[in-house]
Amino acid sequence: MIRVTIFNEFKHEKEDERVKAIYPDGIHNALKKGLEDEEITVKTVTLDDEECGLTKEALDNTDVLMWWGHMAHDKVPDEVALRVRDAVHEGMGAVFLHSGHHSKPFKLLMGTSCNLTWREDGDYELVWVTKPSHPIAQGIGRFIKLEHEETYGEPFAIPEPEETVFIGSFENGEVFRAGCCFKRENGRIFYFQPGHETFPTYYNEDVIKTLKNAVHWANPVYRTKIDCPHVGKPLE
Ligand code: ZN
Asked: CATH no. for residue 195?
C-alpha cells in the first residue's frame, strides 16, 4: 500500500458557506474518498492539529504528502515546513495542489517566489495533456475540461520543471503550466493547478485519476537519511 498523508489547512470550509456546501467534510476528506483504493491508503491532517499533524514520525510513515493550503500559509510553523522539505530530500513524494504554490514547503523546495497571475471569474479551463506517455497522464484523454476554475496565468515564477505534463488554457486567454514535475535530491514533486475551493474540482473523475497517477509516480523507490558521511580510510 502507498501511504498518503493529505494536509489541508481546513479554513475556507469552516468559514465560507459556499465552500462548506461543496466540501462539507473538508477538501481533505473529499480527496481521501476519491483517492483511496486497493493500492492507496490515506491519512488526513489539518492546520489545527498539533505541529499540523506533520511530526517527524508522521512524515517517516508517509510515502506521499499531498498539500492544500491558501489563506493561512503563514500559520504553518517554519520548523514544520523545513521538516517537510527535508523529508522530500530524503525521498518522500509530494503533491502540491492549486494555491499550495504559495505554501512554505513548496517555496522552500522551489527556491523562488512561486508567484503567478490570477483572476476569479469562473472561466472554464481546458487542462491539456502535453506528454501523453507520462505516467501521470495515463487514462486521461487530450484534455480535462473543468466547467469553472480560478484562472491562473503565466508567468509562474518556478524553476523550469523537469517535465511539464499539463498546460491549462482558460476561457479568456490565459495559459498556465498546470502540471509540473520536479525532483529534489531523492524526492519527487508534482504541482497540479486545479482545485479552487468554490468549485467542485476534486469530484472530477479525471482530476482524481491524475492525482492517483501522481501518487504512484511520486511514491519513493529510495529513501535515506540525509547526511554527509566522512568515509574514513581510502579503499586502498
Ligand atoms: Zn484558489
From this structure: 3.40.50.880
